[in-house]
Automatic annotation (TrEMBL):
Regions that span the bilayer: 21-37, 43-60
Keywords of this entry: Membrane, Transmembrane, Transmembrane helix
Annotated organism of origin: Caviibacterium pharyngocola
The name this protein goes by in its record: Uncharacterized protein
Amino acid sequence: MKLKDLIKAPPADGYIKNSSILVTALFIVGGILYYPTDGYGTVIALVAALIVLFGQKLLISQINKDFADMYFAKQQYEATNNQDYLKFIVARAEQILADNKVLSNKGKTELIALIDYAKKELKIND
């Protein structure tokens, strides 16, 4: 992974909420803490900001992979009519909804649409 990829801002219409406000707040806290802590507070705030940015980058790459897997499973179901693909979509989407607290509205909407599609198809085939 290149440095340019790491510092590039995430797209505004992604599946994860943007953490720019939190990072900006940490920068401001770091600036405020510079004189009272002789710079140590600033270092801590900046390290925290880097951790947030790195965590967001990991979440974005994971959620993009998960959505790609679910859409691929949808394509495979349409090609083969194997219900295991639908079960995978439901299980994975429900797990993401339960575990991931920083999903954007777009992400939640697409997950709910995938769940509805899979459950509808499962009901039709039963």
